Fold this sequence. Notes:
- This protein is an all-alpha fold.
- Helices cover 78% and strands 0% of the residues.
Amino acid sequence: MADFVAGRLDLDQIQSSLQVALGLLENDGTGVVKSVRLAEADVEEIRFTRLVDEQRPAITFRLDELLEELANE
């Protein structure tokens, strides 16, 4: 998250990380996979519906929400 906010990671790398996490969590039996899947879909939507200057803040906000969800699991 910090690397994305600092500009060291781009959208492709964030989306790839979420997709890898989905593969690792697929059979964990918790709600984590659902939260990650929804976040990945939201990142995809943000990527194609927001202006470039709006993408990073919107994705940062969505990743913050994901972290909060995961902390409550």
